[in-house]
Amino acid sequence: QRWYLFSYMGQRNSKQVSLLGSKGSRDDGCIGNRKVRTIALSTILIAFFAMAASYLVSSAEWWEDQNIQAPVLGDMCQPCLDTANAYYTAVAGLAVVIVSAVMAILLFFVNCDDKCGRVAGVGLIIGGIMYMIGWLWRINIYNKALKDEIIGDTAPWDLLSDDDKQRVNAMLASWFGEALLPSATAILLGIDVFVHLFDDEASRLASNFACLCVVAFMTCPVYYIMAQDSDDSNDASQYIPINSDAYGWIATGYAVVFWFALLYVILYICTCCTCDCKDTRCVRVIMALGLILGGILTSIGYYIYAGDFTSDRSSDVSSQTVFYIGYTVLIGGVCIVWALDVGLDDFRGR
Question: Fewer CB within 10 Å: C terminus or N terminus of the chain?
C-alpha cells in the first residue's frame, strides 16, 4: 500500500524490453535512457571505489601488521585480525562492483545476450552488500574495542567526556551513512540492470530519493555534532574524531539534500492536494538546483576534510585523502544525476 503511493510519481510506464535494449521504452535522451543512466552511475561508482581501494587495502595491511607486532592474546590479536578481515571484505565488495560496473558499461557497446547483463546486475548487488557488510563489521569492532579494551585499569570509553562520547557515536554513525550511499547506489543500479527498475520514473525517483534521504538523515546531524571541537587530551584521545572545519560544510550540504529530496517526494505523494505542481517547470528547476546545491556544498566539505589527512610538510598524499576525494565525486555525482532527472528529463520529453 505504501509503494502504491509512489505509483503516482511517474506518469509514463515503460513497455516490456530486453535486458539491454531500449526498444519500446521511452527514450528521453537523459536519465530516463538506460544507456545514459547506466554509464553515468557506473562511472561514478568506478571512480569512487577505485579511489577507496588504496585506503581500505592499506588499512587492512596495517591491522595485519599490528597483529604480528603487538600480540594481545597468546600469539595473536583477534581484534586486529577481525578489523583486517572487515576491511578485506569491503575491498572484495568494491572489486566486484568495479568489475560489474565496467561490464555493465561494455554491454551497451558489444552484442551480448541477456545473461551477461544479469551477471553484471547480480555482481553489482553482491558487491554492494559485501561493501556494506565490511563497514558494519568495522564499526562493530571499533565500538566494541572502546568498551572492552583496557588502558591502565580503565576502558577507553570511560576515559572520554560525555561530549566526546557523543562525538565518537556521531563518527560511527557517519561511517554507516557514508558506506550506505555507495552500497545502496550499487545495489539499486544492479537491480536496474537486472530487471529495469529505473525505466519507470516512479521507481527511479522513489528508490534513489529515499536512499538520499536516509543517508542525509544519518549523516547531517552527526556532522553538526562533530563540528564541536574537542579539547580533551588523554590516553583515549586516539578514538575521538579529528577537529575539522569541514564538518559544517558537510552537515549543511546534507541538510539541503535531505529537505529538497523529501519535499519532492511529498509533492509526488500529495499530487491531489498540490494541484500537480510537481510537474511545473518552475518547481522542477528549483528542486533540481536544490539537489545540485546540496551536492556541491557536501562535496566542498569532503574536499576540505580530505585535506585534513595530508600533512603540509609532506608531498605524499594520504590514502585517506584519496578516499574522501572519491567520496566528493560520489556525493556530488549522485546528486547531479538525479537533479538532471528532475530538472531536465521531462523538458526533453515534452
Answer: N
The pLDDT value recorded for residue 4 is 42
- What's the CA gap between 270 and 263, in Å, rounded? 10
Q: Say how many C-beta atoms besides its own lie within 10 A of residue 235's C-beta.
A: 11
CA–CA dist 262, 281 (Å, integer)? 18
C-alpha distances out from residue 56 to 59, 60, 88, 131, 226, Å: 5, 6, 7, 11, 23
Q: What is the mean pLDDT of the chain?
A: 79
C-alpha span between 273 and 280 (Å, rounded): 15
Apex 190 CA angle, 186 and 195, nearest 5 = 150
- The answer to whether 330 and 264 have CB atoms below 8 angstroms apart is no
Q: Is 72 helix (H, G, I), strand (E, B) or coil?
A: coil
Calculate the alpha carbon distances from 12 to 174, 183, 220, 263 in Å: 37, 28, 34, 21
Q: Which residue has the cell 577507553?
A: 156
Closest CA to 185 of 326, 70, 301, 41: 41
Taking the CA atoms of the chain, what radius of gyration do you get in angstroms?
22
CA distance 317 to 325: 11
Average pLDDT of the residues in 171-190? 93
User: Over 50: is that where the pLDDT of 225 sits?
Assistant: yes
Residue in 277, 269, 278 with CA at minimum distance from that of residue 5? 269
Q: What is the pLDDT of residue 150?
A: 53
Q: What local confidence, expressed as pLDDT, does residue 194 receive? A: 85
* Contact yes or no for 314/283 (Cβ under 8 A): no
Instruction: State the CB neighbour count (10 A cutoff) for residue 162.
Output: 7
CB-CB neighbours of 252 under 10 Å? 20
Q: Tell me how far apart the alpha carbons of residues 175 and 195 are, in angstroms, rounded to a whole number.
A: 30
Cβ contact 269:10 at 8 Å: no
According to DSSP, residue 73 is labeled B
> Average pLDDT, stretch 137-142?
92
DSSP letter (8 states) at residue 76 = B
Query: How many angstroms separate the CA atoms of 92 and 193, rounded?
Result: 21
Residue 334 has pLDDT above 70, yes or no: yes
Sign of the dihedral defined by the CA atoms of residues 66, 67, 69, 70, in that order: positive
